[in-house]
């Protein structure tokens, strides 16, 4: 790479880009860890994007109509931090750059959306950023259809590396984007031909350009160090009516001794090589030093969008008060006031009518009343619409010619769906929910973890939640999936027992601001157990006494979802024999754990033997409630699964695996001695 | 679709294919559930493949040199069961077909490899079969390089649907296959233009042919109902030096009222429509009836390969006794006798030298002695070779021109790697292990579950197993991943504390026949805690007393992996204050659970307070050991994580999250009261 030619051809550009490269070298050196090569390779692309195209106002990083910049190759976090510091972001200060990767810094090893307003999304797990970006771009289309181009008209730009493009989720993402012709989405592929293990060709020879074309994308290839080519390509991408991929030929760790090698991917900390690289850049400044003229030039870029933002504010102010209010409510993720009354009315009706319904069907009943009063909801399914019961009558289908549609046929793309939903939630203005079989939590899992880590209130509608799925067999029967979601921090896992609990769970899920929810719903029909209407949302307490013991309380049965019915049957048998049995419905362990000690002791007093009942693994968080947090509370047992399931009609499987009222009764008697 | 034209053009073919269609209709009708449309659409392709190309001998389904047939679109299981029954498989009898999807039947809803010898792999979770098949094809290349084409020379054929091709894992699989030019792999794409939600175009417009070409595949397109075109395409695929994709234009549910509709995907049980379809087929026979002449024709197909198998047996017998024995040992997955002595010698050396080493490094030390004596091992990493320490000096790199290489650069494809490893293990003759960061368990998860369900002894080398990973931050720091793997049935999760335990864990993992293993290994250095050499494999007991209390035993500390060091430090402090502390190292909870009651009570007697220490979530199986299976055993506490991690140097994070000897001491004192 002839750096001198780059410098002399575009001296002003060069200096701005060199600032990114130098800051990266200094921060990684100070931290003695990090990834230098990617920011050094992509500094030119980022500089041109920010200087010439990205619509943003550094002083207002939360301006709703800003363009979104997604660093999918999140290990190159110093690229983003450099850009934010240079353009004048209030949070990513020079001190933060100097504290790169240190405890408490906003400049974490990988960009974390919850640490600074200007960080759009958390990236690092490869492929997530590009998959999020599909959701960002869809949210923009949806919001524009809803509020008009005067208020919503922005682009989504992504930098992705070979890692992102090798990950399977990228396939799901680009297929969905191509199908939906998300023309305001542009992906820069950092085509540097290097992965951690060596040359890309060690593991991959995919023709990425042909691949994106096959998925329906507009594709260009440029020299990623030539600012004119970069500028022209972005201009062309913006004009295309397809999503755009710009293959940027770059040199990883440009100008460093490690250039074009896999060593260049990681932390370049050798002081002499660092000095030599800075010399090659004509960058005679001290560590973390950016000369005032270059900083000013960058700050001007950061202010470039201020006028556009001002115009937007004017247009926003000109909109009707109702429109402003609704825009802000949706943007802030606030549930409408009517939600509570709507849920209460449904609960009342259901408590009276006492339908027998699968909770997936219950969920549909709830959505039928929610979707009409919450225009911000966006539903979808990974090709199981009729099974997940996620589509209600009023939604319309999101499509190229119907951006107002609120239902997405995500295709057989559980992972891409989850990651796109994260993007929608991060974008704001959209409250996404999506369905698949609970067992395919596995496929969506990397993105579900990120919903929790990124504090995004995405709702996962996971139906067919046990061996109750029946004949499809063990590949489709979750047994460990409640455990998986319950072990994940900042995740609410709901396993409602009937339509009333399902309505309560949905109400809680839709009022979350920072926590995703997993709804674990049955395929098979369940009786209504909440037959007495209560206005109070009982699920909000996580667990509660559904039926108390008559006579001396000797036993507490704790059950969730479809097994609450079994607990109630076992209670009847035991009470008939004079054994007092309390039944606790425990639809959400996380919320129960959040109740105060007094409440929890009232629901689960020490003394009586306890039996947990759930058609899943005991490892799914049970021992805490069965045995007590500090032990010694009760003699306890569990009725559930301790193996994979099998293929047979559901009723036979419950018998076969011993998840029956008879088995509960026997366990209780064994424990009573 | 003009069925009459099909019938008259190829009447003999038609009858054979019609047998599959009729059996499918009858079995789904009897089960009142299942998927009719796919077998009815792909019956012609399967018939030609089995009749003209597939090398198999129905009487010997485990013949090692058979061609492999993988039904990636596993919901179409009746296609496979029909083929097996018709060709005379001893296990898939007519009774089994009649019991389709019933409890105890071998004809489960989706094909389960462990139910019948002729079922090569478990499919149903979409994309897994095609990704397995890459491992099958790699194993064939490897085994051929090792034993020669006289003993190993077979093809892998796959039927995949749109679902398989939309799933992200298919991208990883076809990229890897294209890179490795797996020329003996052929994928039939059931291009029927239908998914569950409707037309494929609802969610996808990918040009699949262009996509496979971009990944380096040989691509053809045919009429999937024309036997001559099918035959010619398979012949051409076999000649290509690239993996082959044959796009088969088909009609789902051919000849049924539901043909070409999404309804045709599922269970077609309407009796009148069923009768009409059979009439269209000229199939006047009763339910489950296949006339003798058609059954005979199919049985002849089943016997077609008998001669080839006989020739193979002759060639096998002509090989040297040592070669025969080694082939069989590898094929049967038996560890070499030397393994035990080799591990013991390493343990002795390490106990004496007492190195401080990260357990990922310990793992490499173990592999350095194992790989030379186990030629069947095949290592790899998802682009983290230098971090996972999975490549030893002697392996060589598997590549197009070096099929004897035993190390695979899998690329940034955790899911594809795991699924390919499943395929290798299923194929036989190869014992695969593969590495990534423990946090990316999430990406590999769908295939990891299948390792367990399919009973395949794949080894997952999961390094950087806690906040000890440091600065890369919470996206890369597992906290719930031990819980995830421990909640999965039939999975051994090892978290060794030092090099000795790592060696013992590897020995156990490599002697498994039916259980996958997850090795949870540190990034950071750990002292040797097993300083006294014991020939016995202590990890085999799952948990054991590492250091007993001096004086009265008041406390039991239970720890795993990197936290054993902390437990030992806390013990020292407490003992100095006169408090007797036992330290139990618990490297494998599953194996501890398998010990008899007496042993477990010896290690964890009731009475002393217990504190568990692990830099993960308490939900990771802890309460059972802390509180006792039936409760009331001990007062207990836990020192670990209850949130996501953060970005900072590892030592600071352990302080920050309170996972220190001081915190353990404080917790103990609190519990002692």
From TrEMBL, chains A, B:
Q: What is its EC number?
A: 2.2.1.1
Q: Which UniProt keywords apply?
A: Calcium, Magnesium, Metal-binding, Thiamine pyrophosphate, Transferase
How many and how are cofactors bound here?
Binds 1 Mg(2+) ion per subunit. Can also utilize other divalent metal cations, such as Ca(2+), Mn(2+) and Co(2+).
Ligand binding (Mg(2+))? 162, 192, 194
The cofactor(s) it depends on are: Ca(2+); Co(2+); Mg(2+); thiamine diphosphate
Alphabetically, the GO molecular function entries are: metal ion binding; transketolase activity
Report the pathway entry: Carbohydrate degradation; pentose phosphate pathway; Carbohydrate biosynthesis; Calvin cycle
One GO process term, biological-process aspect: pentose-phosphate shunt, non-oxidative branch
- Binding, thiamine diphosphate: 75, 124-126, 163, 192, 265, 440
Family statement drawn from the similarity comment of this UniProt entry: Belongs to the transketolase family.
Return the protein name. Transketolase
The organism of origin for this protein = Marinovum algicola
Q: Lineage of this protein's species?
A: Bacteria, Pseudomonadati, Pseudomonadota, Alphaproteobacteria, Rhodobacterales
